[in-house]
Amino acid sequence: MTEKSPGYNPAASSLAGEVDPAVMEELLSVRGSIDNIDATLVYLLAERFKATQRVGHLKAEHKLPAGDPDREAAQIERLRALAVEAHLDPAFAEKFLNFIISEVIRHHQDISDNRNSRRG
Questions:
Q1: How far is the CA of 90 from the CAs of 67, 82, 96, 97, 113, in angstroms?
Q2: Contact (CB, 8 A) for 76 and 34
Q3: Cα 61 vs. chain centroid, distance in angstroms?
């Protein structure tokens, strides 16, 4: 999961040669952890979108709307509370979820549109 992309240089930094080597080593170590977390986030988002694709197909099959405002509001409220517990800015968490929700709705609409165009 944490395999690097070809050409990716984990030591890339405009600070190289500008700071104490011990500081640079610690910086690269922390950045390595960040890289692993980023990779995990990408894989988790991919899994989340696989699940939402299944929801999109169910909605299209049963002619349900792409969005579900009550569900979305509940999820935002839930994520804001989780963010507070995790000491993460709840406004940031809400912006992040709103972005994901808008992408999911767009995907659901595309699935519905594709299903309807095959019928017609």
A1: 22, 8, 10, 10, 34
A2: no
A3: 26
- Where does the chain show beta strands of DSSP type E? none
C-alpha 89/C-alpha 91 separation (Å) is 5
| Inter-residue contact 1 to 40 (CB < 8 Å) | yes
Helices 21-61 and 90-119: crossing angle, nearest 10°?
A: 40
Say how far residue 2 (Cα) sits from the centre of its chain: 16
3-40 pLDDT, tens digit per residue, is 567 789 998 999 988 999 999 999 999 999 999 999 99
This prediction's pTM: 0.80
> CA–CA separation, 111 vs 71, rounded Å?
19
Q: Which two tokens stand for residue 99?
A: 């972005």
3-state SS class at 7: coil
Count of H helices and E strands in the chain? 3, 0
**Rounded to whole angstroms, how far apart are CA atoms 88 and 80?**
9
